[in-house]
Specification:
Layout: H1 7-13, H2 20-35, E1 38-39, H3 48-51, E2 59-63, H4 88-101, H5 112-115, E3 119-123, E4 128-129, H6 141-155, E5 160-164, H7 166-169, E6 181-185, H8 190-193, H9 203-213
Length: 222
């Protein structure tokens, strides 16, 4: 598995990618992509670490698995390729942005425009077999992405971590909350959102107010 990441991330993760677990993970991924249909495309596995450089991180949004249906996953959490219908969770994210900030996102669901502004869109598992959610969990990805989160926590200051849903909330234990802002809510999936655990969290305006208070440029959520 070719680890295609930006130079700033390569410096941070150079020891991590030499560890035994990562070698086993690489072999598993290579075999999985050879034997089955997996997502995202192999060249997009590390897109989160190419579209958002370590030095530019302002916000981290943690997802779980890539989308597992054809043509959806593009390597960024909650994001889809251009001209792909918005999945339910992304629809609810955009609805909350509209309610919170009055911004309408009714065209592309490709969130690369957020990544370019310093929003790290990180799934904790970076690959998945088609139509089998969770199929690549517990093979080493979580160790790798925990290392990413821990390095951000240790080496950065004033980053906003958005932890949506029970799975993401577990990551708070590896974040220094004295140095960073952690915002939690229910997951934007319909199951959680329709029970009142997502809508009204106002995370997007809260992020921008926090960034402005630090003298940083806010995120354009459009």
């Amino acid at each position: 598995m070719h680890v295609n990441i930006s130079p700033t991330w390569a410096a941070i993760l150079k020891e991590e990618v030499t560890k035994d677990y990562f070698e086993s993970l690489s072999l598993f991924v290579d075999n999985a992509y050879q034997s089955n249909t997996c997502y995202p495309a192999k060249e997009d596995i590390f897109k989160a670490l190419t579209k958002t450089c370590f030095n530019t991180i302002k916000v981290v949004i943690i997802g779980q698995d890539p989308y597992h249906d054809k043509g959806q996953a593009n390597g960024l959490s909650f994001s889809v390729k251009d001209n792909v219908a918005h999945p339910p969770s992304l629809k609810n994210i955009f609805k909350e942005i509209k309610d919170d900030l009055g911004i309408v996102n009714d065209t592309s669901g490709n969130l690369e425009r957020w990544a370019a502004q310093g929003v790290l869109l990180l799934n904790t598992t970076l690959t998945v077999e088609a139509h089998k959610p969770g199929s690549h969990q517990k093979i080493g990805w979580e160790t790798f992405t925990d290392a990413i989160i821990a390095n951000i926590s240790a080496h950065k200051k004033g980053v906003v971590f958005l932890l949506w849903g029970g799975f993401a909330k577990k990551k708070e234990k590896i974040i220094d909350t004295n140095k960073h802002l952690v915002l939690t809510s229910g997951h934007p999936s319909p199951l959680s959102a329709n029970r009142g655990y997502w809508f009204g969290n106002k995370h997007f305006s809260t992020v921008n107010n926090y960034l402005l208070a630090q003298g940083k440029k806010p995120i354009c959520w459009q």
